[in-house]
Amino acid sequence: MENAKEKGRRAYAERAWSDAYEALFRASAEGPLDAADVERLAFATALTGHENIEVLERLHQLRLDSGDALGAARAAFWAAMRCFWRGEMARGSGWVARAQRLVEGEGRDCVECGYVRLPQVSRLIASGEYAAARSVAREIAELGVRYGDRDLAALGRTFEGRALIRHGRLSEGLPILDEAMVAVMSGELSPIVTGMIYCNVIAGCQHAHALDRAREWTEALSRWCEAQPQLVAFTGPCLVHRSEILLLGGAWPEAAVEAQRASSRLAGIKNQDAGNAFYQVGELHRLRGELAEAEQAYVAASERGRDPQPGLSLLRLAQGRVDLAEATSRRVLSATTDPLERTRYLPAHVEIMVAASDLDEARRAADELFATAVELGAELVESMAHHARGAIFLAQGDARAAIDPLRRAQEAWQRVGAPYLVARIRLSVAKAFLALGDEDGAALELEGAKKTFEKLGATPDMAATEAVIASARPQASPTPGAHGLSVRELEVLRLVASGKTNKIIARELFLSEKTIDRHVSNIFAKLDVPSRAAATAWAFQNGLVG
């Protein structure tokens, strides 16, 4: 009959992590374990979501007591990783220093030299020293190859790819991440390192807007997690990645379930993974029009160290607090210098600046998106730029010029399989068609957008679509750009002519009252009328209302 120690070893080999943890923990209470079994217990503890720092400390001491300084350094490295994951940066730094001292004390080249340098790569990437980070990561990978340590070689290649991507060299970095995934998919690596590489590669693909790759590797990560029912570690980040992919693909109910599972699983943790989970919850609430719930989720994300932008600024826009959204968006961009990182914020910045009627700033942001897309060779960034330019043309009253960039963006997001973004673009195309007098074309676009928004549960967008349908009077529409009025100004004028106050108009259009005041002033100036009554008379005379 197996004793607890033997049962724990067998369960560990079978990747039954909870069984291994329970058996080895029980065995440790019955008597001291040797270093190999303590190591198994440490990793089983981590993989089942339990705190394992004390077990790693015990392993470190056992290695030291046996004279195995390099083994002790390896244990110190993993203790540091655990501390960093928990957000205990000072404690983690202390463990790294101890590991480095032990390795240096050996006075020779060894595989542990590579492990203790991995945190250095993370620091270099965080500080924007991408070339140096890539150089160190490559040296680490070469050490792994030289000493036959597949874990280290794959980690080195992963960090090299991440450094290249952060440096804007996507065509070089993405294939390196693919190469690291070859080792993962072949089952060559330890479970801990496999999970680390999955998360790093998917994050790198998302950062590079390589959504096809992100989707493929997320599906692979899901299969890996599902094949180990007792695995808890990495399932939180996996759920977040799954939610992001499901959200993009239009499966919003499923995305919400995965985001809630992730936030519940990581609720007691304050690190980037937990922050990402709550941010994703906030995004889903915001898109469905559940604004109070979105606010709570963004606050929870912030408390865990995750910048809640651009979601929080878009929430402010949805609340009609355009001035606050504008100020925050400007502040975020002024503090973000990395070109690729800025692409996370620029599309939202354009939307907010258009709402604030600062079209010059919106154009600058759209131009930057184009320049970044060309420099990086990022197709989806280019589609963001096309969408932005189309929205700006529409806002300035040039409906004809808006159609081509909007259609280009629509085609790109259609290929990726992003129905929500496609529907939003179709709504903009419908507005352009209406301005050009193409009632049939506008009706088709509006119907398609409305069906998508209804299916997704995108309540604010559905309301916006219905407002366009209700306000469309194709047989009596004034000439596009008449008297220089923009599409937004024509929309405001219709509502003014219907007798609504600026406050009510602001609420219906999800804009601030100050912005509506500015639109009304612009309407008076362009039409050369002194009052709302005169503007209303103009609207009736020109067939804007019937």
The CATH architecture assignment of the domain at 476-546 turns out to be: Orthogonal Bundle
- Estimate the strand proportion: under 5%
Which consecutive residue ranges, at least 5 long each, have pLDDT under 50? 474-478
- Which homologous superfamily in CATH is the superfamily of the domain at 476-546? Winged helix-like DNA-binding domain superfamily/Winged helix DNA-binding domain
| Level-1 CATH class name of the domain at 476-546 | Mainly Alpha
Q: N-to-C terminal Cα separation, in Å?
A: 89 Å
Please give the radius of gyration in angstroms: 28 Å
Count of DSSP strands = 0
Do you know the CATH topology of the domain at 476-546?
Arc Repressor Mutant, subunit A
Question: What structural category do the secondary elements indicate?
Answer: mainly alpha
> What is the approximate shape?
elongated
Compute the number of helices: 31
The residue-averaged pLDDT reads: 91
| Percent helix | over 70%
Query: What can be said about the biggest beta sheet?
Result: none
What topology emerges from the helices and strands here?
Elements: H1 4-13, H2 17-30, H3 35-47, H4 53-65, H5 69-85, H6 89-106, H7 112-115, H8 118-126, H9 130-146, H10 150-166, H11 170-185, H12 191-207, H13 211-226, H14 235-248, H15 252-265, H16 272-287, H17 291-303, H18 311-318, H19 322-334, H20 339-342, H21 346-355, H22 359-376, H23 379-395, H24 399-416, H25 419-435, H26 439-456, H27 459-471, H28 487-497, H29 502-509, H30 513-527, H31 532-541
Helix pairs in contact: 1-2, 1-3, 2-3, 3-4, 4-5, 5-6, 8-9, 8-10, 9-10, 10-11, 10-12, 11-12, 12-13, 13-14, 14-15, 14-16, 15-16, 16-17, 16-18, 17-18, 18-19, 19-21, 21-22, 21-23, 22-23, 23-24, 23-25, 24-25, 25-26, 26-27, 28-30, 28-31, 29-30
